[in-house]
Every structure is written in structure tokens, then in C-alpha cells.
Write a structure and sequence with these properties.
- There is one protein chain.
- By secondary structure, the protein is of the alpha+beta class.
- The protein has two domains: 274 residues, L-amino peptidase D-ALA esterase/amidase; 119 residues, Ubiquitin-like (UB roll).
- 33% of the residues lie in helices and 25% in strands.
- The chain is built from eleven helices and 15 strands.
- The longest helix is centred in the middle third of the chain and has 21 residues.
- The two termini are 31 Å apart.
Length: 417
């Protein structure tokens, strides 16, 4: 599927399903179409539908300006922890649109619910695109009315759905794995969008996880929150947190095993599968950053705690100077230690090691002679690993991001046009 397959999650307990998608888990269909919100003819309205009430969980942006669809989705999941569908549009964020924006989001929910024959509070809504513009509801209504036929015609329309959620993304992002629980084959799949305005805090731009695991809403929610902190919350493209960030998980329960809880013997394997799916999607978002030419991974070890390591790793990966140096293939380790030193976390300025891939550039906070030409060639690659060892305690973390290029400015200077 063209996504990064490496992961820090334990991979021995699950298998990647090469041709899998968000409709591989039992009970799910998906699809998308062009309703006219985008100027191009790319799909801009999509849905995932479950044939049974699915246990649901969500995490959301902490931006105080939260788009209307977040209120609707919170309400839907909060009613009984179940969903039958999620409806998504791109091309318009429906954010900072006042009471009319809220009314439009509720209408999207109720109209699609009526079309597929379920209660309104069994539908979640998500939007992404330009902030501050009202939805063209005449086009949205027409698209919603046409969606059920599209879903019926192609019950595995995951590619159409993935296209429908994109904005400035260059590639679709989807992954699927299988894991055995109680002798039953369980699938976990995910799809996401995100390219710019990425500095998540409790979510990503838009992400959707489907599974046929038997699990209740509350343990699913706790798992999703924990996994998000290690994956989607460890990526940054530009340091901006969106008004619309949302990650929703749905579990159909059709795999047929005994119910999963943290005490279940299969919990660790299932949690590893969910983490893998989210990590692959998070890294795909980082790699697809607006104008990006490289995926950058920062590994911090030897911190006083994992939380401290996460803060330092995200500060380094989010540094415009570090990102610019990577773009220019400049082995400027000074940018890296400067970022580590301003993260607000304990760092001993006498004990830090820094490496670019396998190239040691700083040892015990002293410069190490290295071959600049070798470093140049390494930094010209499409994946760059920055390793920082603080030599304090055992805290560790990994963050992902991308380089900062001329194209990032070009894309965002004309986003509305």
C-alpha cells in the first residue's frame, strides 16, 4: 500500500495484510464520491458503515476552536458508545462557522442516518479543509443521497473513501493487519489523512480505525488514548494543531472470540496490532508532509522518563532549524542539541551523544570528527534517523516528522486559492 511498514510496535504477534483495507474487518463497507465541495473532480464525501452497532471510541484536538463536527461526533459516541457509520467531507472544515455550522453538521448526521436506516446518534461526522466558510449544503445533500447506492455497488470501496478524505495529501494512507485471538482471526485496519497543520494533541488530522474484535467502548477508548500518545501525538509537520483533528475507532465484534479486556490473554497482541496500525499511519502522515522530501525520525534515549523523552523528541522534530538542515543535507548537530536544550526537560549538557543514522557526531557533548561527505550522502536519502542519548535514566521515545522545504511555503501561501 506504499506505506512505511517498519514499526516500534511488537510485530511478532500479528501479520500485515498486503491487500487489506478498512473494509477487511468483518461488517464494514466504505465508499466515496465527488459532490462538488472541491474545485477539482476528486472525491470529497465519503463514509464508513458497519452492518451492526459497533463499539466506538474517539480522541480529538485540544485546540479551543473546535469544528462543529467534533461536537456532533462526541455526542454520537457519548450516547451509548456505539456507532453505525462515520460520514466525512473534505474541502471544507466547517470550523468557526457559528450556529449555522453546527446546524449543518447535525443535518449531515441526520440525513445520512435516514439514508442508511439508523438512528441519528449512531452516525459520526468529520470534516477537513478551509476554516471559516459555510458548507455548500445543497451539494452535500446531493452527495449524501447518492452515497448509499455507491456503497451498495462497491462494498469494498476503501480507495474511494481514502480519496474522499484528502486535502493537500499526495498519497492515500491505509494499512491492515491480522492477529489471532482465542483461535479466531481478527483484523485491525486504519485510514488517515494529513499533510499540513500537523502537530496533534490527542489526535491527528483525521484518522479512522476499523476492527472486528469483540471489545466494549470503554476499554477501546482507553487503548486508543494510550496508543495515540505513542503514535499520532508523536508526529509534527509544522507545529500547528488543527481545529478538526479527530481519530475514531469502530469495533464490529464479528470476529467471534471472547470479549477483550486488559485482563484477556489476547489483549497484549491486540494492543500491539492497534499500535502498529496507528504508527504506520502516523509515519505516513509525517512522510507526506506538505512539500516534504524526507521522513525524519528522532529517537531519544537516556531521559529521566518516557514523558521527558517524548517532549525532547517532539521539540527536536518540530524545530524549523533542524528540519531546514535536513532538507539542505547539512549535518549541523548544533541545531539538534539546541532544540534538546530548550525542551524544558532535564538535560546534562556534559553527557549528550548525537548520531545521524550510524554516524556519531557528538559524544559526551564533545564534537566527534566524522566524514562530511558520508554524512552528506546519508542526509540526501529519503529517510533520516536522528539519535540522541542523554545518559541520564531509562526514558525513551520516538517522534516522526519531515524536512522543511520551499514547497511548504508555496503550498500554504496559496491554500485558499
Amino acid at each position: 500500500m506504499g506505506l512505511e511498514q517498519g514499526s516500534n510496535a511488537t510485530a511478532a504477534t500479528f501479520k500485515v495484510v498486503a491487500e487489506g483495507s478498512i473494509t477487511t474487518p468483518k461488517g464494514f463497507t466504505a465508499g466515496g464520491l465527488h459532490c462538488g465541495l472541491k474545485k477539482s473532480t476528486r472525491h470529497d464525501l465519503g463514509a464508513i458503515v458497519c452492518e451492526v452497532p459497533a463499539a466506538a471510541a474517539g480522541v480529538y484536538t485540544t485546540n479551543v476552536f473546535q469544528a462543529a463536527p467534533l461536537k456532533v461526533t462526541r455526542e454520537s459516541i457519548g450516547s451509548d458508545g456505539k456507532l453505525r457509520a462515520v460520514l466525512v467531507n473534505s474541502g471544507n472544515a466547517n470550523a468557526v462557522t457559528g450556529k449555522q455550522g453546527e446546524a449543518d453538521a447535525y443535518e449531515m448526521r441526520s440525513r445520512f442516518a435516514e439514508q442508511i436506516g439508523v438512528e441519528a446518534d449512531q452516525v459520526a461526522v468529520a470534516s477537513t479543509g478551509v476554516i471559516g466558510e459555510l458548507l455548500k449544503m445543497d451539494k452535500v445533500r446531493g452527495g449524501i443521497d447518492a452515497l448509499p447506492a455507491k456503497l451498495a455497488a462497491d462494498r469494498t470501496g476503501s480507495d474511494d473513501f481514502c480519496q474522499a478524505i484528502l486535502t493537500t495529501d499526495l498519497v492515500q494512507k491505509m494499512v491492515c493487519v491480522s492477529v489471532e485471538i482465542d483461535g479466531k482471526l481478527v483484523h485491525v485496519a486504519g485510514a488517515s489523512k494529513g499533510s499540513g497543520m500537523i502537530h496533534p494533541n490527542m489526535a491527528t488530522m483525521l484518522g479512522f480505525v476499523t476492527t472486528d474484535a469483540v471489545i466494549d467502548s470503554e476499554p477501546l477508548h482507553q487503548l486508543l488514548r494510550g496508543v495515540t500518545d505513542l503514535t499520532f501525538n508523536m508526529i509534527t509537520v509544522d507545529g500547528d494543531t488543527s481545529t478538526n483533528d479527530m481519530l475514531v475507532a469502530m469495533a464490529s465484534g464479528l470476529a467471534g472470540h471472547t470479549e477483550l479486556t486488559p485482563e484477556h490473554q489476547g489483549w497484549t497482541d491486540f494492543a500491539a496490532a492497534v499500535r502498529y496500525v496507528c504508527e504506520v499511519l502516523a509515519k505516513a502522515i509525517a512522510r507526506d508532509g506538505e512539500g516534504a522530501t524526507k521522513l525524519v525520525e528522532v529517537q531519544v534515549n537516556g531521559a529521566v522518563s518516557d514523558e521527558s523523552a517524548r517532549a525532547i523528541a517532539k521539540t527536536i522534530i518540530g524545530s524549523s532549524l533542524v528540519k531546514s538542515a535536513v532538507f539542505g543535507a547539512d549535518a549541523n548537530w548544533g541545531r539538534i542539541i539546541a532544540a534538546a536544550g530548550r525542551a524544558g526537560e532535564p538535560v546534562n549538557p556534559e553527557t549528550v551523544d548525537v548520531s545521524l543514522g550510524s554516524i556519531l557526531t557528538l559524544e559526551q557533548s564533545r564534537p566527534v570528527a566524522f566524514d562530511e561527505d558520508v554524512a552528506l550522502e546519508y542526509l540526501k536519502g529519503d529517510t533520516v534517523l536522528i539519535k540522541v542519548d542523554l545518559h541520564l535514566e531509562n526514558g525513551s521515545a520516538t517522534a516522526w516528522g519531515c524536512d522543511l522545504t520551499y514547497d511548504y511555503v508555496r503550498i500554504n501561501a496559496a491554500y485558499r486559492t
